[in-house]
Amino acid sequence: MSTPPHRNVPVAATDHDGRPLLVEPHTRRLDGAVREAAVPPFAPPVTHGSLADLPFDNAAAAPGATVLSRRDREGHWTDVPAAAFAAEVLAVARGLIAEGLQPGDRIAVMARTRYEWTLLDFAAWAAGLVTVPVYPTSSVFQTRWILYDSGAVALVTETAGQAAALGPELPHLPDLRHLWVMDKDHVDRLAEAGARVPEAEVAVRRGMLGPDTLATLVYTSGTTGRPKGCALSHGNFFAEVDNAIELLHPVFKARDDEPSVLLFLPMSHVFGRMVAIACVRARVRLGHAPSLAAEDLLPDLAAFRPTCLLTIPYLLEKVFNSARAKAEVGGRGAVFDRATAVARRYGEALEARQTGTGPGPSRALKTSRACYDPLVYRRIRAAMGGRVRYAICGGSPLGRRLAAFYAGAGIEIFEGYGLTETTGAATVTPPLKPRLGTVGWPLPGTRVRIAADGEILLAGDHVLRGYWDPQAGGVVPATRDGWLPTGDIGELDDEGYLTITGRKKELLITAGGKSVAPAPLENWLRQHPLISQVMLVGDGRPYVAALITLDPDGLTHWRRMLGKHPVPVELLLDDKELRAVLQRALDEANKLVSRPESIRRFTVLPADFTEETGHLTPSMKLRRDRIARDLSKEIESLYER
């Protein structure tokens, strides 16, 4: 099993319409188990040029084609032709050059998902720059670290408030020379300032870029909680998006219905950036929605009417649960439940037919589904805009039951698995051959290996160059012998489908796809005199919560100071004054992190974690799996409404 990953393997064959034929993974076994799976690339490797060329290539090939749509402040959508978008990119790129930014300089963008994000991405690349996304929900501490570590010379925030919050940190950021605000129309001013820069200067800078040129630094939390920059090249993105476009042919190349994608996930995350680039690359109409709040997103979906959604399990769960709640309020709860059962059976029957393990939906099942379609399924599709046929889902596992329901309701789910380090997806559910409950096959051009300890290793041209380390002079390699260790545990079945079974790292990944390193918050809280041990939970859950045990000495002191009588710990678990003190401690700890990483709820346990109970190692480290198993009821209670 020491064979290194191959970079130059044959491209998969295509049918008479130019669509790639479905190529099953090549698998390798060791000790009776499948330990490696690989799919050849569907798209040839890009050998010259960069992402900066895409707007200009589109303008030359199809100047009138709609590549984006822009929402105005009244909520109306205006189409942006390829030629117009290229002109905007050119103008802003000239403005960045006029402001003195040099090739290779880093420019950070801190904003929600909006048109200007994609515009700045391509304009920065056209000016030879490297973009650095920053979550708009990041704490001041996190933002300062990313700006300092990346050496960003410019920052574009969405709001004046974000810029003002960073004011006290500016003396600690010696490289930062420019601070622009979208809401103050600074992007438009950049375009105006660029009028004095010759267009040829942008062409020269674009010509300096190649597939191996650094495109972006995307920071992701490490096990210590300190973000580290993943150095992704233009070639990494080409390998990712070109193969994704070819594999997901119905999403990006369907001609029976104009394909369109409404992007509402954060563009600070590589998943959102990758899909935005794929849409520009494939000339699929792309829209941006800055808010996930139902009162904002639902009108955008209704007006934009996408054919595909880029989503996470949490949102699909929310749509389902909201529909169920509305049905129950209207006295149709039983009807909804029957429709759910029919949809799941229908989705599973479709899967069986596509995988050759069954005949497909029976006539009776088709009839039942047709009956429930106007009552339930059509309403769910209408909530997503009415034209949605596909959803690309990532961030955390969706689960077989929900995937089968949506398939039966008429929305095909392409579930995937990947990391920032893999420029997005490393595995994807293949069209026409899904396996519900898995994260699919290797993305074309990807090799997946299961190490002896069960860790998932990945290889391919979309795997990052390395991690950013200014102390080491730039980028340091991230792979061992060409294989990226993911820290995740998984299994490959006989046909090469990957199932994620656990996490070697201690990172939590919430239902919203947010990676949370528990150690910094746990360590902070353990310094409180009342707290002995803390374990954060929230993996696959809507938010982070905490299990807290009390320090006996600290508790005794607290009781004495308040004049409380000595009572067993069990009688203090719901004490309002005690919980108020602990809540203040959590509030202080939450200042270290962004809102999605913060602790929302907690429970106080009657007994401490000890080595004797099996909850601590001899070195006093938490045995997380054992604690989670033994205290499953307490954890479930943290997510009950």
From TrEMBL:
Q: Which domain of life is it from?
A: Bacteria
| Keyword hit for Hydrolase | no
Q: Which key words are in the record? A: ATP-binding, Nucleotide-binding
* Pfam families linked to this entry: AMP-binding, AMP-binding_C_3
Report whether ATP-binding shows up as a keyword of the record. Answer: yes
Gene3D superfamilies cross-referenced by the UniProt entry: N-terminal domain of ligase-like (3.40.50.12780)
Q: Where is the AMP-dependent synthetase/ligase domain?
A: 58-468
Q: What is this protein called?
A: AMP-binding protein
* Source organism: Streptomyces pyxinicus
